[in-house]
Amino acid sequence: MSQGASTDVMEHKKGEYVHIGDAEEPELGIYDKPLPCFGCGIGWFSFLLGFVCPLMWYYATILYFGNYYHKDPRERSGLAASAIAALICTVVVIIVVAVILL
Predict the structure, then answer these.
(1) CB-CB contact of 86 with 60 (8 Å)
(2) Of the candidates 39, 37, 35, which has an alpha carbon nearest to the alpha carbon of residue 49?
(3) Using CA atoms, how far apart are residues 69 and 42, in angstroms rounded to an integer?
(4) Torsion sign, CA atoms 56, 72, 66, 64
(5) How confident is the model at residue 37, as a pLDDT?
(6) Higher pLDDT, 54 or 69
(7) Strand, coil or helix: what is 21?
(8) Which residues make Cβ contacts (< 8 Å) with residue 44, sequence separation at least 6?
(9) Domain spans of the chain, in order of start
């Protein structure tokens, strides 16, 4: 790290965003890389695929509660949407089963 770069990082207050460069291409930041799953991220991909296979919502819920989004905060909203969809799906299934059995 050069002297100029280290002083830039030190001058920022705690909690402020600092540009993090890429080792292979220094002009790219950490969020300039595309997300996996066709660029929409695992969370949103699981959310959309969950309408065909609801087990994907539960998979994304496990990732959400396992703090997978700490690797890339852009994943958090999609994983949260999948967790909410899994909750709604579970409630609907419980109501349907209760109506059928009663």
Answers:
(1) yes
(2) 37
(3) 10
(4) negative
(5) 73
(6) 54
(7) strand
(8) 37, 77, 78, 81
(9) 1-33, 34-102
Cβ atoms within 10 Å, residue 54 = 15
Band the pLDDT of 3: cuts 50, 70, 90: low
pLDDT in tens, 12-65: 566 666 555 555 655 556 666 777 777 778 888 899 999 999 999 999 999 898
Q: Which residues, 6 or more positions from 81, have their beta carbon under 8 angstroms from its beta carbon?
A: 43, 44, 47
CA–CA–CA angle 36, 42, 43 (5° rounding): 145
Tens-digit pLDDT profile for residues 76-88: 888 999 999 999 9
29 forms bridges with which residues in the sheet?
A: 21
Q: How far is CA 25 from CA 17, 32, 101, in A?
A: 20, 11, 61
